[in-house]
């Protein structure tokens, strides 16, 4: 049996250290590559998910909180999923979106969205709000106040308007003129009453945002 010399021991030790160092460096490289690939994988996943959701023609959203609205009011909503603006910019889930109440038509609150704020940029986002029943507008069942005001207004506007005709004496003309004034005042009050119709929309009411249909109107 021949004992190894000190020189041989040193050589073996150096070789073992080199192997250990190479192994450690290899692990570092592999770990670095995994870290680099992770965000790319997440990006691919998010892109695929966004493409899948974009195949639908509607975007899920919900009403932000209990809100009392009327024609001309602003309704605050939040997105229920990631989506894209009209010019292709990403809008994150839970981002706020604001729509204008165009009118209250019976049991329907018609809302229109024009733009959205994305990181301080005002971007085009033309959408119409639909309910889960696939009809335009937010459904507010039992909106008796709106129906009553609508019927009253229609009756006032469609009512006959007495006209002053020849052959009447001065007193009759004054009476007829007074009647005309009352009818006109009723019409104006009824027209204003349409705008005063208010409804309450509950928090988390689910809605769908659809691309606004171009009607060709200027």
UniProtKB/TrEMBL annotation:
InterPro entries: Conjug_transposon_TraM, TraM_C. It comes from the Bacteria. Residues 16-26 have a biased composition (Basic residues). Residues 27-42 have a biased composition (Basic and acidic residues). Residues 1-42 are annotated as: Disordered. It holds the Pfam family Transposon_TraM. Residues 1-11 have a biased composition (Polar residues). Residues 59-209 form the Conjugative transposon TraM C-terminal domain. This is Conjugative transposon protein TraM. The gene is traM.
